[in-house]
Amino acid sequence: MKVLMVCLGNICRSPMAEGIMRAEAARQGMDIEVDSAGTSAWHVGESPDDRAVANMQQHNIDISNLRARKFEVSDFDHFDYIFVMDQNNFKDVTSSARNSDDKLKVKLLMDMTSTHTGLPVPDPYFGGDEGFENVYHMLTEACERIAAKLTSH
Q1: N or C: which end of the chain has fewer CB within 10 A?
Q2: pLDDT at residue 15 is higher than 70
Q3: What separation, in Å, do the N-terminal and C-terminal C-alpha atoms of the chain show?
């Protein structure tokens, strides 16, 4: 199973989601590949935001070695599931889909939860540390649900 997490710049939400999904998969003994990407190329090659790294370290997850990359059309070929953080990411990713099979792979991440369906994962970039903590909890709920769903198939 191959899962891609996508946000705008690939320095906050999606690398956090990648780290959480990897940790959850390891905890459950799942054989899964997880990556992340951004819909923009603004931060390609950069490490995650220092606040995202610090927040994840508080939860014993290390994302400091991740590097931002831009979403590519070839990601549709490589990944089984593509989870996006908000409607703008959804539009950007699905607009590059080549066919209906590509589009079917794209899901809003919070639609995987029972309590935040239809909601975006807020971008914590322009906020304070509490925004990163809030995003951590939202992403954790979604990743736990994804892992449970994938292990039940």
Answers
A1: C
A2: yes
A3: 11
